[in-house]
Amino acid sequence: MVDSLDQTVGELLEALEKAGMLKDTILVFASDNGGDPYSAPRTRAITGLCEEPKPRSGKADPRLTRSSRVSTQLMHATDWLPTLYAAAGGRVGDLGTLDGVNMWQALSQGTPSPRTELLHEIDDWSGASAIRFQNYKLVVGNYGNKFDTRFEIVGGTRPHGDLKALRQNSKAAAVLKRFYGTQNSLLQPNINDWSAGGNVSCGQGNPNQNFVQGQRYYLFDLSCDPCELRNLASTNPQIVSFLLSKLAAYNKTVVPTIDPTMDSRGFPENNNGLWGPWIF
């Protein structure tokens, strides 16, 4: 599946190149969550890699003065609309009231993110919720121990040895080499891979060592604990209280869930091994 995706991206780049549109194109690759080697299933408030993958900038657009880097600025999925609208020359104010903020200056010039917080979830079905403010993430409630245990560390190693070769020989790389020439470090095999800055290391050890399931509050400092292994709630009651007040403000605008019951029509066994659209 991933190989087919790579081929499709290459074909898309080829089409943009032939149409003379590549120089004016911003490519965005978005995903739901990262892997979940330590935590609860990815549809839950506690996620394995905590945050969505960091934006990576490799496009030689003249408006990207800070390119070929991994951005660590806080960003939410709702920010893409005003960000891309601004990048295309639009006035964000014309869009009206939005949940998202314009991240274009932060991404293109490396200035501080205008976003300081984001709401992960408010689940009126289970009562669980999660919010992040700067480096702190608060998770409230649990799922009655049904989804609250952590997955064990997956053994073995990942075959990264051929990653650079596959990237260098891809159809997309051929297009970008013609576009960039030798200007971009991403296409030069002997230069350190700048995209490695997006990797997250959880370290070694038992993921359950500092994790007690079924607690009411979980507070994590993502700047030094990106895999959410150390619950700081008991030693930082003021931070917990501050984040609870922010959750309460968001909760005033929550729209009730229409139908939270599980629908078996979405189960993989009913869809040739794939999750279908009728999950909940």
Automatic annotation (TrEMBL):
GO molecular function, one term: sulfuric ester hydrolase activity
Protein name from the UniProt record: Sulfatase N-terminal domain-containing protein
Known cofactor(s): Ca(2+)
SUPFAM superfamilies per the UniProt record, alphabetical: Alkaline phosphatase-like
Keywords on record: Calcium, Glycoprotein, Metal-binding
Family designation: Belongs to the sulfatase family.
Domain annotation Sulfatase N-terminal: ranges: 2-89
